[in-house]
Specification:
alpha+beta, three-stranded mixed beta sheet, 11 helices, globular, Bacterial surface antigen (D15) domain-containing protein
């Protein structure tokens, strides 16, 4: 072979060698990737037997060398570990005979994450860590190959001071006298928009060692209305001695207390009664005896209704609340920052929330005074007749899903939400009634509708650039409420308006309920009103419903900053009414199922259509809408351009 041929072959050989080297490197990379996958799978499925109880230690800065003394109760921390699904001392039983064992490292990591999220949600800890380590030779009879569980806690200071501002929170014992309506808009309890306020508070944290919270706060808003609140919230088990039978029933059973003979005799169903299994945060927030709380709340509050009803109300209340958990609020400013006790508003809590609330409230209704004639009243005769003091004694129970079955609590595009409350008031109070209200909202992405409704095959991909489909969502909601007066043989409702005091009736309107109408803009009205309530004082109804059908899409791509911050463009149609049963020719709710009554309710409905923009912010939801009322009454208070802000939807 000549030198020219040899030189011509060299580049070819070099190219072959380079391709072979690239192929070898690719094969090695693939082998390393598969090996890492096998390792990850082995680690995830690795069986781990955990000892019980867990070791509880203080997490401290090693530089100063000072180890603080923990206030947290060790039995309480171990109970939270068991309720989170961490199988201390023997494992959590399978839920079904076919379900895989929950003894793997992956399952332990999920349970530990739930535990950390839960304990940090109480607002009593700066840092929570869960560590798994090899156990030394044990003398307590447990498996020598078992793994120790160590919980390291960095507790917050036992006191906390707060000075700042935010959005005015509503009366913790009112429990939502108004009805939120849309599943899309801001919540306005009683039809009132939230107000800015200045607030100062002092809190005591984890004094008993059970993640308890005690808070005293004072606030005043821009109208001068002030309020003072006291809250003490703690798990129910902390109110009783540990040797008490009810305490043992509430708390998860320590597996070490179950001997070997008893273990063999227990069926899977019976073992499930002793230990707690949870599969996700939604189920976890409902279960566990250490999550059952009993809180005390007291309130001195001034409520300003002069803009819609020409009166102010001064209330003093005290009550108790039994709730299912105390993980704290999901988000939001106010007392305790991002973590509020479980006697806060039910709709502000994180996760599904069940509660039973007893309260007694003393209320003073003060009609608006005339600005030029101090001895004259500037209100309707209906409001003037209700002036004075009333005592309300009530028991309320309710359930709030709080958006745990949606993809985003404040900007939902998929899933459903719901709430239901029932309040009964009676002796020894002056007020007697039974009030029920609730509602639900649904959110369907257009991609799913296109796939299931229009039968698009699964293998046909949806174009990510399709501006009509991607991100578009259909929303719907329906909310309703009714009140039935209860006289209790003449002991209650003496002198009240149509059997129900004005403060307990339903008021509908505003961006969070019925867009296109002002707060308390529809419903029964007096023939006249004060200077700040043109068109007549709103007298409220004892029956209401609101319904919304809407569609929303993200902002176009060239509005990248708005799109990334959850901005959406929406169009909607909403309808609703607020009436008195006496106007329907009946004083009983049982007769409302008749065709004539239903026909009158539908004929009294108000309708508005419009559009706007919304933003799902970290602390809530903001929306700006423009609505055009297409069906309204001659005395309805209407407003097309509205701004709303709220914390809960449905």
């Amino acid at each position: 072979m000549s030198n020219g041929q040899s030189q011509a072959a060299d580049p070819f050989l070099q190219q072959q060698r380079q391709q072979h080297a690239k192929l070898q490197a690719k094969r090695q990379q693939q082998m390393a990737q598969r090996l890492n996958e096998f390792k990850a799978q082995y680690v995830a499925e690795y069986k781990m037997h955990l000892t019980s109880p867990a070791q509880i230690e203080a997490l401290y800065d090693t530089n100063d060398g000072v180890k603080p003394k923990l206030r947290s109760d060790r039995d309480f921390i171990n109970a939270r570990l068991l309720e989170a699904g961490l199988p201390l001392g023997g494992g959590v039983p399978d839920v079904t005979p076919t379900s895989p064992s929950q003894m793997t490292l992956f399952a332990h990591s999920e349970a530990a994450t739930r535990f950390v999220h839960d304990l940090e949600g109480t607002g009593c800890y700066d840092t929570v860590q869960v560590l798994f380590g090899n156990s030394k030779n044990r003398e307590d009879g447990q498996n020598d190959n078992a793994i120790d569980v160590t919980v390291k806690l960095k507790e917050k200071n036992w006191y906390k001071l707060y000075i700042g501002g935010g959005v005015n929170s509503e009366d913790i014992s009112s429990l939502g006298d108004g009805g939120d309506a849309s599943g899309l808009g801001a919540l306005g309890v009683g039809g009132a928009l939230p107000k800015l306020q200045f607030e100062t508070s002092a809190s005591l944290l984890n004094i008993t060692g059970f993640a308890d919270v005690s808070t005293a706060s004072y606030s005043v808003d821009q109208t001068g209305a002030s309020s003072f609140k006291f809250i003490h919230d703690r798990p129910l088990c902390s109110w009783m001695p540990k040797q008490n039978a009810f305490y043992e029933w509430l708390m998860p059973r320590d597996p070490n207390l179950i001997d070997a003979g008893e273990r063999e005799q227990q069926s899977n169903a019976e073992m499930n009664e002793r230990q707690v299994f949870v599969s996700d945060d939604a189920q976890y927030s409902l279960g566990g005896g250490s999550h059952t709380t009993l809180g005390i709340h007291a309130l001195l509050d001034e409520l300003d209704y002069e803009s819609t009803r020409s009166y102010k109300e001064f209330s003093r209340s005290i009550g108790l609340r039994l709730a299912n958990h105390c993980r704290g609020a999901a988000r939001g400013p106010g007392v305790g920052g991002t973590n509020k006790p479980s006697v806060s508003l039910p709709e502000s809590m994180a996760g599904p929330y069940l509660y039973l609330d007893w309260s007694i409230k003393l209320r003073d209704l003060l009609p608006r005074r005339h600005t030029e004639f101090p001895f004259a009243l500037d209100c309707s005769k209906e409001v003037a007749s209700q002036s004075g003091t009333t005592l309300k004694h009530s028991l309320t129970g309710g359930m709030y899903l709080n958006g745990c079955f949606t993809d985003d609590r404040f900007d939902p595009t998929m899933g459903y939400d719901a709430h239901l409350t029932c309040e009964v008031a009676g002796p020894p109070g002056d007020v007697g009634f039974c009030k029920v209200k609730g509602g639900a909202s649904w959110h369907w992405p257009l991609e799913l509708l296109k796939m299931f409704v229009f039968d698009v095959p699964d293998e046909v991909p949806i174009n990510d650039e399709d501006p009509v489909v991607i991100g578009a969502t259909i929303h719907s909601s329906f909310h309703a409420g009714a009140i039935q007066p209860l006289a209790f043989n003449g002991l209650c409702n003496n002198g009240s308006y149509r059997g129900i005091p004005l403060s307990d009736r339903f008021y509908v309107g505003g961006p969070g309920q019925l867009r296109g109408f002002l707060p308390a803009g529809i419903g029964p009205r007096a023939s006249k009103g004060g200077a700040t309530a043109p068109g007549g004082d709103s007298l409220g109804g004892d029956l209401f419903y609101t319904s919304t059908l809407a569609a929303s899409v993200p902002f176009p791509r060239y509005f990248s900053s708005l799109r990334q911050n959850g901005g959406r463009i929406l169009g909607f149609a909403n309808a609703g009414t607020c009436v008195s049963t006496s106007s329907l020719g009946s004083g009983s709710l049982l007769s409302l199922a008749s065709t004539p009554a239903l026909s009158q309710i539908m004929q009294s409905s108000r309708i508005a259509v419009g559009g706007g923009v919304s933003f799902g912010l970290p602390m809530g939801r903001f929306e700006a809408t423009y609505a055009v009322p297409v069906r309204f009454g001659p005395r309805d208070a209407r407003k097309s351009l509205q701004f709303g802000f709220g914390f809960s939807f449905g």
